[in-house]
Amino acid sequence: MLPEAFLLLLSAAISSAQTRQELSINQLASFNTSRLPNPPSFNLPDQDELNITVALCAGSNAGPFPRFFVSNSTHSAIEDDPGPSGGTDVYEIMVGDGHGSWTGKFPSGGVLAVDVNGAPQTTFEIGVSNADPMHEVLTNLPLFGDSTANQALIFSAPFLAPSLPKPSYPNYTLPGGNLSFPDPPSSSPNFTIIVQSTASGIASGHQTGCFLSSQRSSLNVNVVNQTLWLKDADGWRSQWILGGLSPSTNYTVYVVQDSTKVSGPIYFATKSAAYSCPLVASLPYCPGIAYTIPLPAPPPGAAFYDNGNLPEAITTPLISYLTNFTVSLGTFACGRDIYSPLVGCDDCQREYRKWLCAITFPRCGEPSPSSSGSFTSSSAPASATGLSAVQGTGDAQKVFSALVPQDTGRPELRRNQNFPEFTNPYSLLLPCIETCNVVDRTCPAFLGFRCPLPQFNAAATYGVGYIDSTDGDQDKGATGAAQDRWGNVWCNSG
Ligand SMILES: *[C@@H]1O[C@H](CO)[C@@H](O)[C@H](O)[C@H]1NC(C)=O
Ligand SMILES: *[C@@H]1O[C@H](CO)[C@@H](O)[C@H](O)[C@H]1NC(C)=O
Ligand SMILES: *[C@@H]1O[C@H](CO)[C@@H](O)[C@H](O)[C@H]1NC(C)=O
Ligand SMILES: *[C@@H]1O[C@H](CO)[C@@H](O)[C@H](O)[C@H]1NC(C)=O
Ligand SMILES: *[C@@H]1O[C@H](CO)[C@@H](O)[C@H](O)[C@H]1NC(C)=O
Ligand SMILES: *[C@@H]1O[C@H](CO)[C@@H](O)[C@H](O)[C@H]1NC(C)=O
Ligand SMILES: *[C@@H]1O[C@H](CO)[C@@H](O)[C@H](O)[C@H]1NC(C)=O
Ligand SMILES: *[C@@H]1O[C@H](CO)[C@@H](O)[C@H](O)[C@H]1NC(C)=O
Ligand SMILES: *[C@@H]1O[C@H](CO)[C@@H](O)[C@H](O)[C@H]1NC(C)=O
What we know:
It contains 5 helices and 25 strands. The chain has about 500 residues and is of the alpha+beta class. One 2-acetamido-2-deoxy-beta-D-glucopyranose binds near residues 32 and 121.
């Protein structure tokens, strides 16, 4: 016979435990700390392994925050709520930047308890998954294309690798000059872009989808166009053209996938109000081109240049060059004869296309407002050798973007003569020399493709020494990349 008091206690435990709600697998649950069940705990289902994640949706990163404890011994009725005092099989889900995750085995279920920990009223989400975690801070970042005074072109991180079959002998067919663009994937994550002025300090708040989504502010930023785009072999991305931005302002961008997976932040700055180069994007024959070019404003009704409104005087010769190059390349017995153990004609054509596009579409640029010193202010002389970009020594050393002011008084000097004269003052961001060197490396020697040499005059027409070192050491240049997540763009990588 059990003593009566113990029976009473037991039945109290049972009745309170019976009110414990079970968290469903693979379903997001949202809670408010001021409306938690009593006791503030939930049952977890029996599963070989669960990925449990929590995301704080409100409040400041300074705390105090609620704490989350799991126990995976059992979810039997008499199980006490796991808490700060610990015990066997009790674990805390550590929360940092508003996000916490814990993976463990639940052979006989478990309990998750919330300790409000004196936090002011707040909301949070719990995701219990028997597959990948529901909440995630993704390591792949969004990609900045370019900006004008009040627009910006942003890509999500790639979400799906393209399925491009490699051609093979005897039917070695290369894509045509005017690339026929593959159909976009039928399903994609549900992407939300979040844009805030950097001054708002959004990056110091919780890095969770629910928090960031609630920070979509009073800014007048609007999405002018959103499409899925296969920019390069990395895969499909969501492409946004944003409008309504303010000139010379630093912005912070996040991309949230399916409301719970956070990619970012990246930063970019809009150009000054006087900046007059419009954006071009969505060109099937130049899928990588997504930046500002020296053309007059796009035709009325269009926010940017695309396949439908670019002057034919630019596109027809470009496609003709690509077609002729493909014909010349095809005189090689591609796929039967091997000119390199590493690459084939398809790689050669792809890199040539990338290079030709970067050369055909001169890229405009402007010194960054916050660090005007990080851009070159004068053109490298035609005799320039090596990297003109790094100047100064020691701590004062700065990397200058390959930015060259154009002499609009001498239109005969413009980079692509098929472009109409552009009378507004502007600066060109030179192509990265690597876009040329990779063609040299991947194409058969009989094509005679050559790039200017760093020790000769390459720096007059290319950004040299940014990605690869001037000696050619890969990724050992001054910046190791054409651009960074802070909004600096060093050279045009096409
Ligand atoms: C949380 O609950 C409190 C009290 O019911 C309410 O005032 C508050 O608006 C709720 N918060 C959210 C974000 O729903
Ligand atoms: C609880 O999870 C931990 C971590 O996965 C594991 O080591 C432990 O054996 C689990 N406890 C039980 C009772 O399964
Ligand atoms: C939990 O997530 C990790 C990735 O963070 C994954 O490797 C693992 O397979 C997931 N667990 C289950 C049961 O799917
Ligand atoms: C050759 O390949 C192309 C593209 O992959 C395909 O459309 C065509 O049907 C193939 N021709 C033959 C004869 O297999
Ligand atoms: C390229 O092909 C697309 C259709 O695949 C067509 O809409 C476009 O007009 C073509 N572009 C040029 C410049 O011929
Ligand atoms: C995508 O996410 C947004 C914001 O979270 C939501 O309003 C919308 O219903 C979602 N769409 C789909 C198709 O899931
Ligand atoms: C977005 O841009 C693409 C490429 O220019 C275009 O095909 C599409 O129609 C645009 N979508 C909308 C909704 O304007
Ligand atoms: C491509 O080749 C054709 C035929 O040889 C020639 O007429 C045309 O001018 C070439 N295109 C370019 C851009 O050189
Ligand atoms: C934008 O702001 C970030 C964070 O303060 C800073 O690191 C970055 O250099 C700024 N970028 C530009 C282009 O001004």
